[in-house]
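**Backbone shape codes:**
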Amino acid sequence: MVTIAMVIGAALVAATSAIHLHLWATGYRAIPTIGPLFLVQGVVGAILAVVLAASRRLFAVVAAAGFMVATIGGLLLSVYVGLFGFMDSLAAPFAGLSLAGESVGALMLAAVGAVLLVDHRNRAADDRT
């Protein structure tokens, strides 16, 4: 079950990264600072998705979950406060889809991370006895 959840989490990271790459390619690249950040988000997310799918490591789960949370934070900052002089909207193309995928992915990966952490601690306790 943990492996399936990790693969789904990796797919969600990949999907939201693909959204950011698509948006970058269709116009966000022209926005100073935000454009390059969209490109970085897309590339780093793709790499994290592969690492997460290929490994069953806690560090990959934590990194991917943190990445999703940071991406949510960036969107919400740009909507409600502005980010690097750019104001976005939740009505922008793919904003809702991206926010939903990142939220589900972050929650799923946090749950997987908790399961892996408990499993790791249980194995460590068993080794001491």
Remarks:
- The CA atoms of residues 90 and 96 lie 6 Å apart.
